[in-house]
Amino acid sequence: MQNGTTLYALDIDGASFTKACGGPCTEGCVTLARIGEDAWALGDSKRPDAQPLRFTTEELGVAGIDPARFGLDV
Questions:
Q1: Model pLDDT for residues 11-70, shown as the tens digit of each residue
Q2: Any idea of the CA torsion for 18, 21, 27, 33, to the nearest 10 degrees?
Q3: Are 10 and 39 in contact (CB under 8 A)?
Q4: How far is CA 35 from CA 11, 30, 46, 52, 61, in A?
Q5: Distances (CA, A) of 22 to 30, 32, 51, 54
Q6: CB of 12 within 8 A of CB of 52?
Q7: Taking 80 as the threshold, does the pLDDT of residue 6 lie above it?
């Protein structure tokens, strides 16, 4: 099981981030990438230099974030 320490130890160079937008994305979008088994990185397209936050699949669910909305399988 992943935890905060192991999640942030994962290398995300080369991770493929996808956007989920409810509209034209003129204000920026949330981006999501699978970075390992039960591990996700959540970014902000308006702040590409900001380090993405990292979550387990369970944590994403608790936050109401569904990877399927991004076209990703759990």
A1: 999 999 998 766 666 666 889 999 998 999 999 888 889 999 999 999 999 999 999 988
A2: -20
A3: yes
A4: 8, 16, 21, 11, 16
A5: 10, 15, 23, 22
A6: yes
A7: yes
User: Tokens at residue 15, please?
Assistant: 């991770």
Asked if 70 and 18 touch (Cβ cutoff 8 Å), the reply is yes
The residue with tokens 């994962």 is 10
Q: What DSSP element (H or E) covers 15?
A: none
The Cα-based distances of 4 to 1, 31, 50, 56, 73 in angstroms read 10, 19, 18, 9, 22
User: What's the predicted TM-score (pTM) here?
Assistant: 0.84
